Amino acid sequence: MIHSLYKTVNNINGKFYIGMHTSGDPNDDYLGSGTAIKAAIKKYGKENFTKEVLKICETRTELEHFEKLYVDSNLDDPNCYNLKEGGQGGWDHTWNSEKRLEAIAKSFEEGRSKGWQLDKAQRSEMFSGENNGFHGMTHTKDARAKIGKAKETPKEIEEQRVLQFQAEPKTWGWKGRLGKLWGISPQKVAPWLKHRGYE
Description:
There is one protein chain. By secondary structure, the protein is of the alpha+beta class. It folds into 2 domains: 2-95, GIY-YIG endonuclease (3-Layer(aba) Sandwich), CATH 3.40.1440.10; 141-195. It has 8 helices and 3 strands, in the order E-E-H-E-H-H-H-H-H-H-H. It has helices at residues 35-44, 60-72, 98-109, 120-126, 141-151, 155-167, 174-182, 189-195; strands at residues 2-10, 16-23, 49-57. The radius of gyration is 19 Å and the shape is globular. The model is unreliable at 91-96 (pLDDT under 50).
């Protein structure tokens, strides 16, 4: 796997996003997973963005270090799509800066999300009972079997993940790093490992 630091530029307005990516090909079509860059790609179309590889690093730790340097030095630039400090991966749920809150508020104003200003009980009520799109319905036995089959991990991928888990330093953000590497959310990393007796 290759650890790359990249810069994605919006060819229409000059805005940019700096991120880190671990893959077999640093020049693949991955453009970034940040909230603002994803919204921009949806708005302008993938064809209007260009990715430039800024640096190739030996390890993921080195990559995180350089992403932090590059992102933090550009965070105040109004043309920067990054919404938080670098080096933390894409799932920093404790980050609570003013810029992020503004971005979240805007997404709700535009109808892209809802319920952020409600407390847990209100959100639960908002999406439970008859408000739940699946209310009163159940999956058939065949559908449940298909869902279960779709969730299965191929043996070679499972073995690779176990090796990556064992090699990954258990420092802050390790679940996020593995989740990004495996293409799943960090919240699913621990259950995946626990189900196999690793955590």
